[in-house]
Amino acid sequence: MDDDTILVTGATGGLGREVLARARRTGRPVRALTRRAALPDDPGVAWFTGDLTTGASLDAAFAGAGTVIHCASDTRHPKHDIPGFHHLLAAAERGGTRHIVNISIVGVDRIPYGYYRVKLEGERLLAASGTGWTNLRATQFPELLDKAFTVLSRLPVMLVPAGALCQPVDRGEVADRLVELALEAPAGRVPDLAGPVVQRLDRMAAGWLRAAGKRRPVLAVPLPGKLGAGLRAGALTSPARAVGRRTWEQYLAGKASR
């Protein structure tokens, strides 16, 4: 068993790719797990195909991997993440994994949203697993907001939740932190990682429209219930943990230049 080996799940996803690049620079043996049948040609990484949802073909990837950085998530079918977590934990136990580093989201315990409930349940399963664990909650990635605004901008008027607050954090900075944590001892839930500035979503939308070269009025619409209240109360933010460096405006500047 090579306890130094780091396995990255969801290695072909947006965050997984960033984590994988940084894990390679640690000098440790690195493995990558993906559901894709065609594996990347990457001599610096040992690639494995396996399906966390069904539990198929996982053991080869996990055997002897001392640390797992868990980035895999099915945002289109969130219900798959719970069996995926069970299969992850079982494969980690069989393989002798000592430390699982998990990425979660700021607000999973405060926002009544289906995907967030799934992420929170994953945190609970990890804490009760008996395997050493570290859990990092991060705020929203700019790429996610970019996709949401792209969809919302298809209408003549761009509708956003009134008073909603957000604190986007750079995906690469989150990847940096996950790899740092993977090199340390299991630490349980660690302090959140949030972007440098808390902003109103309607103002962010207006900035996005300018960067995208689109002209639309932005209409802030009151969102009822606990979801709207949570967004207005800043449940997606962590002001005390505004340690990220790259701003939303810098992200938009990069988008405009492309």
UniProtKB/TrEMBL annotation:
Top-level taxon of origin: Bacteria
One Pfam entry name: NAD_binding_10
Domain NAD(P)-binding, residue spans: 10-141
Keyword line: Photosynthesis, Photosystem II
Keyword Transmembrane helix among record annotations: no
InterPro entries: HCF244-like, NAD(P)-bd_dom, NAD(P)-bd_dom_sf
PANTHER family, sorted: PROTEIN HIGH CHLOROPHYLL FLUORESCENCE PHENOTYPE 244, CHLOROPLASTIC, PTHR47128
Protein name (Swiss-Prot/TrEMBL): SDR family oxidoreductase
Organism listed in the record: Kitasatospora paranensis
Lineage, broadest ranks: Bacteria, Bacillati, Actinomycetota, Actinomycetes, Kitasatosporales
